[in-house]
Amino acid sequence: MESGQRFSLFRYAAPHLFYPLAGRLAPWFAAAAVILTLVGLYLGFFVAPTDAVQGEVYRVIFIHVPAAWMSMFIYLIMAFWSAVGVVFNTRLSAMMAQALAPTGAMFCFVALWTGALWGRPTWGAYWVWDARLTSQLLLLFLYFGFIALTRAIEDPRRADRAGAILALVGAVNVPIIYFSVKWWNTLHQGASVSLTKAPSMATTMLMAMLVMALASWAYTIAVVLWRVRPLILERERHTEWVGDVLETAEGRA
Amino acid sequence: MLEVTELACLRGDRMLFANVALTVRPGELVRIAGPNGVGKTSLLRLLCGLALPEHGQVCWKGVPLAQGREAFHRDALYLGHAAALNDLLTPQENLRFAAACHGLGVDAGACELALERIGLGPQRELPAKVLSQGQRRRVGLARLYLSENVPLWILDEPFTALDVAAVRDLADWLDRHCARGGMVIMTTHQDVPFATPMRTFDLAESAC
Amino acid sequence: MLSVFLEVLRRDLLLAWRNRADVLVTLAFFTIVACLFPFGVGAEPNLLRTIAPGVLWVAALLATLLSLHRVFSQDHADGVLEQLLLSPEPTVLWVLAKVLAHWLTTAVPLIVAAPALALLFDMTQSATEVLILSLLLGTPILSLLGGVGAALTLGLRGGGMLLALLVLPLFVPILIFGAGAVDAYLAGTGATAHLMLLGGGSLGALALAPWACAAALRIAVE
Q1: What is the pLDDT along chain C (222 residues), one digit of tens a residue?
Q2: How many structural domains compose chain A?
Q3: Residue (of B122, B95, B123) closest to B109 by Cα position
């Protein structure tokens, strides 16, 4: 605890300090997510011009692309927290990784779903074995694997550490998977239609996309902060401060 | 010398014990006592480095386990509940493998001798799956006869499933280990006649 | 230091020999999976020739997957794993020995049987040679990555399915380059790049996987 006081950066790595902080910050990020989403959707669906080639359908990219970005970022962040947990043996980092995984899987699924909706009019099929879509699908399986493994292990500390190893192994493999799928794709299909390379991106389109990307960041942070709070309580329930927290909660109720 | 300070053990979501302090010096025979479920096996697993403590540390010759893992494992022998036998291998093969993994340079002759001393001479070349519970136990214990130079023995219920004569022989061998300046930490529910004065550490006092 | 490596390797090979029915079952599984495909897609020779590398690679992958539980589970149940973890020698050494034993007793029989199966799919001799080479270079990655998965799922309920979910996505690149090597050879572009990538992957997995595996095993016995 004393070292935590001195190094302000690591101060909030202590679960009992992070718990109230997470509770205070989460609503702000949630509000930011709502506002940004509304602004982004308004920009994307009403302000941005209709695409000359693809018509109105292209507007799905305002959801699809930020979701795809986010799903990849979240895996990287998970791997980052896992590495921190393995190296510094900080408990909070493993909880962060676990809180992130379901959101990552959700974004992955949204990216796949919107990709299929976008693909139907564009390619004439809901699913083509496009390199990006295929990597996204494999990423979804990696998320499922992580979630399934950490849920299957009963002892929470063992689950944290096993999950960290899996996340790191996965993170090493993600670029390899992406590269190999891309290689396979060019051999079998020729050049694929890229979802992000809209011929000429109008400024408003770019703006809408950026706002939506920020919205998904804010959403992720808010959800993760909310999700990590019960995880902290669960993991630390043998400590005194959790007892205090639960007592005050009961008193309020 | 083995030194344990402020050791705490978390099992699942339950704190088994906390603030365990224990020092074992050469020649000492320590029995960890306490009712079932108090965490005796968990303590032994913490002592030998198989599990990580929630709090506190274990030091061997003044060095924390985390820093001197390899040196410690050379100096320590842990025999747990499971006999560490593969059913398809003979006692001789099992024992030789266990000794080799522990870095003991023993040959087949020494293994034969150890099995003879523990009373498994005739069963030496049978697959382990035909052995009785007591005989399986003995194959594990035969390692003690190869580990005279390993100072620290950590034994989890070594006397279970042994007959009276075998209990006496084993107690005698543990006495001789302590007389040589070795250390024995063990759990047992039996009353065993040791010549060495036995120190009892009651884990129930540290239970949470 | 090498002695623990050799001891573990010798013991695991001896156990595989005493348990040789297991090896034969894996081999039979490999064969039957490969033989199912013609029933599913039809016995048109050109089609079979096209799908042969992919089919044999998928079959090898599944056979490896089903044999992975053998690497650590018996030792985990017997308590041998605890004793190995208490060995003063570095954990990665004997982990590597165990993985090597798995590769020798699972992948090598598959590779030996592959030419016979290639005949069933009417593959040319030179294409079969490329396939064998790709299997030789690629299957070590399956054993190494699979070892990590097996260590992570050790002692869990429903561990087998979970193991498949964990490792199959990681196996995709190996499948792509392995089957791709033969396709590239048949297309006339040469299989060198694919084989180099597989070899590089094997070296990379050899450098990293044993550490992950050792860490996972420590967690599993705790």
Answers
A1: 678 899 999 999 999 999 999 999 999 999 999 999 999 998 898 999 999 999 999 999 999 999 998 899 999 999 999 999 999 989 999 999 999 999 999 999 999 999 999 999 999 999 999 999 999 999 999 999 999 999 999 988 888 899 999 999 999 999 999 999 999 999 888 889 999 999 999 999 999 999 999 999 999 988
A2: 1
A3: B95
Q: Computed from CA positions of residues B88, B89, B94, B100, in that sequence, does the dihedral angle turn out positive or negative?
A: negative
Is A114 inside any structural domain? yes
| Structure-token pair, residue A69 | 């970005």
HSE of A159, CA atoms in CB hemisphere, 13 A? 22
Q: Decide if C151 contacts C211 (C-beta within 8 A).
A: no
Chain A nearest CA to C121, separation (Å): 21
| 3-state SS assignment for residue B12 | coil
Q: Is residue A32 part of a domain?
A: no
pTM for this structure? 0.90
How many distinct structural domains can be found in chain C?
A: 1
Q: What domain range is A224 assigned to?
A: 59-234
Extract the tokens encoding C45. 């020779």
Q: Is residue A179 part of a domain?
A: yes
Whether A1 maps to a domain, the answer reads: no
Cα angle C33-C37-C43, degrees, rounded to a multiple of 5? 140
Q: What is the ipTM of this complex?
A: 0.92
- Cα dist from B140 to A188, B79, B146, B159, C83, whole Å: 58, 7, 11, 12, 11
State whether the Cα torsion C121-C125-C130-C136 is positive or negative.
positive
CATH class of B2-206: alpha beta
B83/C79 touch (CB, cutoff 8 Å), yes or no: yes
Q: Cα separation of B27 and B182, whole Å?
A: 5
**Chain A nearest CA to B15, separation (Å):** 7
Of A18, A11, A20, A1, the closest CA to residue A245 belongs to A20
What is the three-state SS of chain A?
A: CHHHHHCHHHHCCCHHHHHHHHHHHHHHHHHHHHHHHHHHHHHHHHHCCCECCCEHHHHHHHHHHHHHHHHHHHHHHHHHHHHHHHHHCCHHHHHHHHHHHHHHHHHHHHHHHHHHHHHHHHHCCCCCCCHHHHHHHHHHHHHHHHHHHHHHCCCHHHHHHHHHHHHHHHHHHHHHHHHHHHHHHHHHHCCCCCCCCCCCCCHHHHHHHHHHHHHHHHHHHHHHHHHHHHHHHHHCCCCHHHHHHHHHHHHHC
Subunits adjacent to chain B (3 or more Cβ pairs under 8 Å): A, C
Nearest to C195 by CA among C123, C136, C145: C136
Contact B160, B1 (CB under 8 A): no
Query: Which chain B residues are closer than 8 Å to A238 by Cβ?
Result: 10, 13-15
The phi and psi torsions of B152 (rounded to 5 degrees) equal -105, 120
Is A237's CB within 8 Å of B12's CB?
Answer: no
Q: Which of C154, B55, C161, B38 is nearest to A158 (CA)?
A: C154
